[in-house]
Design goal:
Number of strands: 0
Radius of gyration: 18 Å
Oligomer: single chain
Shape: elongated
Largest sheet: none
Length: about 100
Amino acid sequence: MRDYPPFDEHLFRDSGAVNLAMAVVLGAGAVFLERTLVYVALTLNLVWAVPHLAFHTAHPAHTAGAVLGMIVAIPVLLLVLTRGALPAGERRRPWRR
């Protein structure tokens, strides 16, 4: 038995619009690779993914297993890997004595 509420077309369309907006921000971060935009895009994804994972963890009948964990793990990994990135247009200068 599913424990989801009845279908609501308005809510469904609004949810789809939010997902499209997220795709635009994530896509812009991937295309422009500007540090602040990448941070915002990854954080946006985590703000959605963590509660989504929490719901599915609390309702194991609806869990897709490791796939949902990756939805959280990949943005966290990318945030860690980009932590030392420079802002757009800046270059590292060699250390001088």
